[in-house]
Amino acid sequence: MATEQSGEDAGIQLRDRIAALGAEAFHDASVRISQHAVVTPLLDTPAIDGRRIRLKCENLQATGSFKIRCAANVIEQLSPETLRRGVVTASAGNFAPALAIAGAPHGMRLICHIPEKSAAVKVAKLRALGVELVFHDFEAWWRIMQTRDTGMPEATFLHPVCEPNGIVGNGTIAIELADEWPEIDTVIVPFGGGGLVSGIATAMRAVRAGVKVYACEIEGAAPLAAAFAAGHPVTVDRQPNFASGPGRQSVLEIMWPLLREMLAGVITVTDAEARKAFRDLTLDSHLVVEAQSAIAYAAARSADHSGRNVAAVLSGGNIDRDALVAALAD
Amino acid sequence: MATEQSGEDAGIQLRDRIAALGAEAFHDASVRISQHAVVTPLLDTPAIDGRRIRLKCENLQATGSFKIRCAANVIEQLSPETLRRGVVTASAGNFAPALAIAGAPHGMRLICHIPEKSAAVKVAKLRALGVELVFHDFEAWWRIMQTRDTGMPEATFLHPVCEPNGIVGNGTIAIELADEWPEIDTVIVPFGGGGLVSGIATAMRAVRAGVKVYACEIEGAAPLAAAFAAGHPVTVDRQPNFASGPGRQSVLEIMWPLLREMLAGVITVTDAEARKAFRDLTLDSHLVVEAQSAIAYAAARSADHSGRNVAAVLSGGNIDRDALVAALAD
């Protein structure tokens, strides 16, 4: 109970800190990350039912994911002393490689706590980038995600989801969208931990108030929809689906106040809609994406956005060959 | 012999007409095609041996191919009377759909002569675009490509490779490359019929003389390398390979004088190099491409370009699912 309380307090603090930022904070971040992150393409797709849908292609970052924006904006604001002592994170995905790449010019030491069942290709990639790995079972790993306690007090812990400077780095996507598409009125963003969608929503409010920013999830693995329905984070059982295996999921307490305030809502798509979107992204738009990104495109096509100008954020493209081939199967 | 002679004469005429164009002809074309073609992304890849390689992503055109540049620049210069009488072409690939899309706003009738063994997915796509199809065996179809004689004198024949306005349309890629990458010194372009590489080479000579433009081919299916070796087009047997099945191939007589004058040379890659490049484009760069495009990336990586700034032109992404899955197999 004490932990939950402090999670909520921390969440209110985080929300207030992020919500106070003006447009210049996000513009500054765009400049700060520009040596690591590119301005990603915004590609048109066939119009549907009077709506226009464009794809914001974070899968075309050199690192294959939006996370380089987040990592670069964090790393570039660390002191030389902090960089010297090193950085520790808990990441099963794209955050650790992005930190390694952004930290490399500084000679930064990076330790990553990782679930022991992580894909071999991910482990090999982290090792090739010089990351020191510490393996945990999933429960212990998830506890680090919740408590930030790695037992390594000398190194600075960076959280893959809720670092304020990381959330601001993610918001640079909104700056680009507003620049590239003046008529944009809707943005749909995959929901992982909430750092991406809350960054985009907060930045959009600062530079183009009125643009609606939605998270999206897949049926049977929708902790954010459950949180909105209950009015607070609840744990849901995750059914195996196109985007991920079984498990348990909840929205991080610390992210909830920010998400509740900033998002226009959450859109849930079916497994079949996500699979069709993945296939069309591959064969019609010629983009390789992670399954999460297909959920965003599916949500842009399936939900009621008639007459609107909708950007679907393709958050990343780091999918291995077998998963790609499997996702293209009938 | 008479046909070959006239092919060579026509080739010299074509070369002289294209070679006389200045930069403004290509800049005008860029404006002319802008409602149909986008300025495609130029993406970085990991540096190799001190060379930088960037990918010019024509696979990210809405039509999935550079051919929309070619088609739009041709169609937009036809008279209302010509558009009313209709257009006929011989195409087994991306040219006919691009003509259909560029012609649609004009209500243009389009007839396409097509090899009878064309992939069902291509035939269905053309029918969906309202194209009238005439089927031929491969020999008869290739004769139309050489003679332009379709037995339909009332409709204007547009050749997929050697329309002067089409070649100029392809040259708009060079305009974008020169704008986007001032330090560019080398461009590598897949060789199909020669319209793409000669357009880029001619435009580059006009706007940035000194940039070397190479064609590329795959071992065992290299009619351009054979033409450079012999000093004139020769017919070669095509071995089945990663990019295409068996057959016979030669450089079109009409294209040879232009190619000989404009190109820095031709680079040949192995089947294994092309397969590796395809896989890396898919899994590291997150781009779906046609096999030909992987040859360009392979050539940029394999040939001796140390210290150079090399753009590989990814000509298109229209590959069907089975071919994509097969190309990713070990």
UniProtKB/TrEMBL annotation, chains A, B:
Q: Which InterPro entries match?
A: Ser/Thr_Dehydratase (IPR050147), TrpB-like_PALP (IPR001926), TrpB-like_PALP_sf (IPR036052)
MF annotations from Gene Ontology: L-serine ammonia-lyase activity; threonine deaminase activity
Q: What are the leading ranks of the lineage?
A: Bacteria, Pseudomonadati, Pseudomonadota, Alphaproteobacteria, Sphingomonadales
Origin superkingdom: Bacteria
EC assignment: the record states: 4.3.1.19
Pfam families hit by this protein:
PALP
Report the cofactors.
Answer: pyridoxal 5'-phosphate
- Residue ranges of every copy of the Tryptophan synthase beta chain-like PALP domain listed in the record: 33-316
Species in which this protein is naturally found: Sphingosinicella soli
Kindly list the biological process annotations in GO that this record carries.
isoleucine biosynthetic process; L-serine catabolic process; L-threonine catabolic process
Give, as one word, the top-level EC class: lyase
Protein name (Swiss-Prot/TrEMBL) = Threonine dehydratase
- Which keywords does the record carry? Lyase, Pyridoxal phosphate
